Amino acid sequence: MSIASRVANVMSSIEEMSGLDGVSQPIVDWVGKAVRPAIVRNTLSGEVIGHPLHPLLTDVPIGAWTMAGLLDVVGGSSSERAADILVATGIVSALPTAASGLNDWSDTYGPETRVGLVHAGAVTSALVLYTLSARCRARGNRTRGKVLGMVGMGALLAGGYLGGHLSFGKGVNVNRVAWEEGPGDWVAVLPEAELGDGEHRKVDADGTAVLLYRSGSEIWALSNTCSHMGGPLDEGTFADGCVTCPWHGSIFQLRDGEIRRGPATARQPSYETRVNDGQIEVRHVG
Q1: pLDDT tens-digit profile of 32-84?
Q2: How far apart are CA 46 and CA 208, in angstroms?
Q3: Angle CA(83)–CA(88)–CA(93) in degrees, nearest 5?
Q4: What superfamily does domain 187-284 belong to in CATH?
Q5: First-to-last CA distance in the chain?
């Protein structure tokens, strides 16, 4: 059996560990309450930068601790101060990284939540080990500090692999409409008489699910698939010109798909609309 197959079996085993659910659910509930304010949710999700914040932040502690380990091995006594600074940088930067990761993890279910819990345990172990390493270095016990750092690197690598599995293997926080290409030409989707003021409908536009909403004389159209985790927007709630996804509470403006509240970080694809011969027609904006 190849190494890749063995690792895949380990991942499958973790995904099937239902016993982890009793540990993860209270944490998920607590995180959900902590990130409820829109400004907190948007910041930790990465709404401002247009994609998830957590992967970006992980580069800092991983890079700092990796360089510290390199200096510990080949740098010599002249690099000790620099290694210490890098270890401390990793510790400090790990805190906002962990906060953004918990925010993302709180939106997962089942196998993804279980893998995420083990991922969190691995990177938390790395943080503890590097904190102990920093303490030993400060007290002059550099040998023990280096050893703790190397063990911490092992935990960090394990956590990094689990994080990669969540992103690339399970598709957590991947934009669900990244490849959506609605019709470029006008397509009739619904008789105008069937959409009253304040009403919405899910319609089919050449194989793409589109959400229609009427506000007075205006008709707005968005992709019906939430960009965050694929939730059905037509089953959400509508208020103040916005739709709230029923799965994780992302809020989008119906007029143009802009995000009002995360966890979504990618705007909803929007469609132009018109009424032609009594039929509502749509086409993708591009």
Answers
A1: 999 999 999 999 999 999 999 999 999 999 999 999 999 999 998 999 999 99
A2: 27
A3: 125
A4: Rieske [2Fe-2S] iron-sulphur domain (2.102.10.10)
A5: 46
Pair of tokens at residue 212? 């229609």
pTM over 0.85: yes
Domain regions of the chain by residue span: 3-169, 187-284
**Size of the chain in residues:** 286
- CB 211 within 8 Å of CB 243: yes
Q: Which residue has the tokens 């208020």?
A: 239
76 near 131, Cβ under 8 Å? no
Beta bridge partners of 232: 225
Structure tokens at 233: 């927007």
Going from the C-alpha of 132 to that of each of 19, 126, 211, the distances in angstroms are 30, 10, 53
Please report, as a single letter, which amino acid is at residue 242: C
Query: Locate tokens 């409908």: which residue?
Result: 201
